[in-house]
Write a structure and sequence with these properties.
The chain contains 13 helices and no strands. By secondary structure, it is mainly α. The protein has one domain: Orthogonal Bundle (Farnesyl Diphosphate Synthase). The relative contact order is 0.10.
Length: 281
């Protein structure tokens, strides 16, 4: 009957993903069924940790995050957890023997959110690695089915894609992060704020990340290529929308892609994937 328990736990991870992110949910649905559950499991863990540091304002976040981290490692070690999110996560981690340093780096970035309000170049890069790049690498391990050679070949592109996603999120959420969480991630805006010049500098960095990531996406196994390409095109569309706006607008509004546009991106991604091997944006 444990199979039923595992199924219930997976549904919790799936529900978490679909509730918090329609964009990632669409991408995951285009993955091969054999790996969807593992990506849901990874996202569920990431989402819960992020919720602790971002929304649990009436509770002791430091204690809750430390407990969640300890419970995560205990679940991986014992191969079982009564927390359904951790049960699904440990199943995936143990199945693919995902590098524990990736998990440690992730939690390190979550801990930084509890203690740091601004970042210099070094802490910014460290945060990006732990909050985004290592998540991409966890997923990459699943995509290549643990093949270490393929993992190394695609590692750089996976890191760049994760970094691009996170930096776009930073721009999209700049108003909320500044006003509600008192955080400023980009080192470029620490003194003068977001100006048109600093916005262009940040955008040039993101553009390069996207370009480097696309090279690797084209080389991914077929089981995941379309799903990752859809996520790439969604975030690139969001990025282009942000890039077309002024710095002042970014500071006052949270930029979104509506569901109709998301479905349009999904359809066009499918057509590009199947009929245009150049994959030009």
């Amino acid at each position: 009957m444990k199979a039923l328990y595992d199924q219930v736990c997976l549904k919790c991870s799936q529900l978490t993903t679909r509730s918090y992110s329609t964009s990632f949910s669409l991408g995951i649905r285009l993955l091969d069924p054999s790996i969807r559950s593992d990506i849901y499991a990874i996202y569920g863990l990431v989402r819960f940790a992020d919720e602790i540091v971002d929304t649990f304002h009436d509770y002791n976040k430091k204690i809750l995050l430390a407990r969640f981290k300890a419970d995560t490692y205990e679940a991986i070690s014992e191969g079982i957890s009564l927390n359904p999110i951790l049960q699904s996560f440990q199943e995936t981690i143990n199945k693919y023997q995902i590098d524990p340093e990736l998990i440690e780096s992730f939690f390190n970035s979550m801990e930084m959110d509890l203690s740091m309000e601004t970042h210099d170049e070094d802490s910014y890069e460290e945060y990006i690695v732990g909050s985004a790049e290592v998540v991409g690498l966890m997923c990459l391990t699943v995509f290549v089915n643990g093949d270490k050679q393929r993992y190394q070949e695609l590692k750089f592109a996976a890191e760049r894609l994760g970094a691009a996603f996170q930096k776009v999120n930073f721009l999209r959420d700049l108003k909320h992060d500044t006003m509600n969480l008192n955080r400023a991630y980009f080192p470029e805006i620490q003194h003068a704020g977001l100006t048109e010049e600093t916005k262009r500098q940040i955008e040039a960095d993101i553009e390069k990340d996207f370009d480097d990531a696309l090279v690797g996406i084209r080389q991914l196994p077929l089981c995941c290529r379309l799903g990752v390409f859809l996520a790439y095109r969604y975030y690139r569309s969001l990025f282009n929308k942000i890039r077309a706006l002024s710095a002042e607008r970014i500071l006052t509004d949270r930029i979104r892609i509506n569901n109709t546009r998301k479905l349009s991106i999904m359809l066009k991604s499918y057509l590009l994937f199947n009929f245009d091997r150049k994959w030009s944006y």
